[in-house]
Amino acid sequence: MEVFDKALLTFANQMAIKLGYNRAIEPEYLKNTPDDQHWAVVFCMLHEHKAGKPTDPHVRCMLRPLVKQEAGGYKVDPAVSLMVDVVPEIFERAMIAERQPATPKA
Q1: For residue 32, what is the DSSP state?
Q2: Dihedral, CA atoms, 37, 42, 44, 50, nearest 10 degrees?
Q3: Are 54 and 48 in contact (CB under 8 A)?
Q4: What is the reported pLDDT for 20?
Q5: How far apart are CA 45 and CA 29, in angstroms?
Q6: Which site in 22, 35, 67, 80 is 20 to 30 Å from 3, CA atoms measured?
């Protein structure tokens, strides 16, 4: 897997814009991303047209931003797995109850 940092993606994007390709990234988007952002680059298809006319071969790419993540684990009682189907119903009932006007207590 190829990975581009912000500087390399900005350079490649400027080249795509100068060459008149219609699949470029909005420069303002790149300006507003953190300097330490990275993207996984997937080379998708060889392309030989520009604006519907034959041109030198080039490759279309897809980009996926890489995000920092943390993973962890936890232990639960096996009975918790039985509650998984019930939780959405409980949540839905709570939301309905919040929308109901409060009834005065006698």
Answers
A1: T
A2: 30
A3: yes
A4: 86
A5: 24
A6: 22
